[in-house]
From TrEMBL:
Residue ranges of every copy of the Amidase domain listed in the record: 24-444
TM spans (from-to): none
SUPFAM superfamilies per UniProt: Amidase signature (AS) enzymes (SSF75304)
Organism annotation: Streptomyces roseoverticillatus
Protein name: Amidase
Superkingdom, taxonomy of origin: Bacteria
PANTHER family, alphabetized: AMIDASE AMID-RELATED, TRANSAMIDASE
Pfam families per the UniProt record, alphabetical: Amidase
InterPro entries, alphabetized: Amidase, Amidase_CS, Amidase_dom, AS_sf
Length: 463
């Protein structure tokens, strides 16, 4: 096994035991980038020499006994919405041409303090306003979408061109690309991970979180990221936990909600089969399955768009008026549509969110978590714009991919996607775990328990 193939946890163990040096790991990943990047397009920019210098410094620190923890010497990619001092934050848009960040974002600073090594910035759908990331190709099949908007981060992790990465999630933008590329993606509880220094799409829906190869890896990254920052008004003042799950797989006593409504409606049959099989695995580990009805399903799409579009429009109001031609057409149209929405529309969306949060809280009193598909279908072809379901319903690809993820953004509950197999074409399928606010330990415990019953996953084949 080459170093770039190692999970974060395995690489950290090898570095701590002095069986692997940070420089060897970084060089292996950079070589992998050179080989795969022309085919996949995960990165906006790669800072190879900067990464090698940082790896040399990490190697020296480890040799001197100054080991900082499991992220020390581990190479990462950051979605190009996340500020790093002295580097461009382009948001994959011409609007940001010439931009340079003057300070680190909170998450970049925390990862740097933990010893992680930045490889470069990964592509996003322009300003995170989309679910396909057209610049980047799926790590399993370059003719299919990567998912978005954190498509570059997910493809980098899936292809071995980053040991872990950060994404952002406003309507599924961590979980969608993670599911479509066969990796783990975690959207934390709203406010658990600070967003200071991260370009916003929608203030009340935005989250930052890790994309990794294993659930344990995600726990290690979350432990470094979580914690209050007063510069983010939504940041929670809660104790920082050690999110690492235990080694056990016994889920006896855990109540897992299986939706009767919404989450299995208009879902590809191979996705449903794989997810229900994985649910059966959780039951075999001792969990009690409880059927639940998802509340207020008819309002989910309207609430998501009713919050996101006006907030995005407010953020971009100035540049949209002075330089509309610099936006890609799909994003410009969505931003212009925000001007057609009234203050009343936005207030009604906020009221709907308040009611939905209350209903979800009641539902989550009856079960410890919800299990469901992450997305309704595997990655579609890069030129496909709509999907038609067996009942004749036509749906845009973006609406389909956001549909099962949006409830966690609206309510702010944590959500984790875990790979649970592949379809007949070899494309990954993801299962989503949704928990109570600050219920990350439970999600990570269940996801890790499931992973331990499965064979080790290989890197993506398209790379």
């Amino acid at each position: 096994m080459q170093p770039y193939e190692l999970s974060l946890t395995a690489a950290a163990d090898a570095i701590r035991a002095r069986r692997l040096s940070p420089l060897e790991l970084v060089d292996s990943v950079l070589d992998r980038i050179e080989k795969t990047e022309p085919h996949l397009g995960a990165y906006v920019t790669v800072a190879a020499e900067q990464a090698r210098r940082a790896a040399g410094e990490a190697e020296h620190e480890v040799a001197q006994g100054r080991y900082r923890g499991p992220l020390h010497g581990i190479p990462m990619g950051l979605k190009d919405l996340i500020d790093v001092r002295g580097m461009a934050t382009t948001a994959s848009s011409r609007v940001r041409a010439g931009h340079r960040a003057t300070a680190d974002s909170t998450v970049a600073a925390r990862l740097s303090a933990a010893g992680a090594i930045l490889l470069g910035k990964t592509h996003t759908h322009e300003f995170a306003f989309g679910l396909t990331t057209p610049q980047t190709r799926n790590a399993w099949d370059s003719g299919r979408v990567a998912g978005g908007s954190s498509g570059g981060s997910a493809v980098a992790v899936a292809s071995g061109t980053a040991t872990f990465a950060l994404g952002t999630d406003t309507g599924g933008s961590i979980r969608v690309p993670a599911a479509l590329n066969g990796v783990v993606g975690l959207k934390p509880t709203y406010g658990l991970v600070p967003r200071h220094g991260v370009t916003s799409l929608s203030w009340s829906l935005d989250h930052v979180g890790p994309i990794t190869r294993t659930v344990e890896d995600a726990a290690l990254v979350l432990t470094a990221l979580a914690g209050h920052d007063p510069r983010d008004p939504a940041s929670l003042s809660v104790p920082v936990a050690d999110y690492r799950p235990g080694a056990g797989t016994d889920l006896t006593g855990l109540r897992i909600g299986v939706p009767r409504t919404y989450y299995f409606d208009n879902v590809h049959p191979q996705v449903e089969t794989a997810v229900r099989h994985a649910i059966g695995q959780l039951e075999a580990l001792g969990a009690q399955l409880v059927e639940v009805d998802i509340p207020m399903t008819r309002y989910i799409q309207a609430t998501q768009w009713g919050l996101m579009v006006p907030e995005a429009g407010a953020y971009h109001e100035g540049s949209l008026r002075t330089a509309p031609g610099l936006y890609q057409e799909d994003v410009r149209i969505l931003l212009e549509a925000s001007e057609l929405m009234s203050a009343g529309d936005y207030v009604r969306a906020q009221r709907s969110r308040t009611l939905m949060r209350a209903e979800w809280a009641r539902m989550l009193e009856e079960v410890d978590l919800i299990v469901a598909p992450s997305v309704p279908m595997p990655a579609v072809g890069a030129d496909e714009e709509t999907v038609t379901w067996p009942d004749g319903t036509a749906e845009s690809v973006s609406d389909a991919y956001v549909r099962l993820c949006a409830p966690a953004n609206i309510t702010g509950v944590p959500a984790l996607t875990v790979p649970v197999g592949h379809d007949a074409a070899g494309m990954p399928i993801g299962m989503q775990l949704l928990g109570r606010p600050l219920g990350e330990p439970t999600l990570l415990r269940v996801g890790h328990a499931y992973e331990q019953t499965q064979p080790a996953r290989a890197l993506a084949t398209a790379a």
